[in-house]
Design brief:
98 residues
Length: 98
């Protein structure tokens, strides 16, 4: 019976959405080690229109270190990949397995 429980938990933990979301959280955690997210949010909220916000974001990414740029792009890619899987899961009919 232990093997059954072990296989059940391995299947739950190794689901693609769980693995991708874990990697995304790790990348976001690493970003917070290099930049002050609070200051970024405060500066971003002071921007008035959409074009200024885009300009601020591009300028902020262009003036950061390479590792922060890499982690930001990796986080964005993981987020898009995860969102794609979630949307596919919502619109794909699958039989319910336990």
């Amino acid at each position: 019976m232990r093997r059954v429980y072990f296989i059940y938990w391995v299947k739950r933990v190794l689901r693609p959405v769980f693995v991708k979301s874990t990697f995304l959280l790790v990348c976001l955690g690493w970003i917070t080690a290099f930049v002050s997210v609070r200051q970024i949010v405060l500066n971003l909220l002071s921007v008035s229109d959409l074009s200024a916000m885009i300009r601020f974001t591009v300028d902020a990414l262009a003036s950061t270190e390479t590792r922060v740029q890499f982690l930001a792009f990796l986080s964005a890619a993981l987020f898009i990949w995860l969102a794609r899987d979630v949307v596919r899961g919502l619109f794909t009919a699958r039989p319910l397995r336990v």
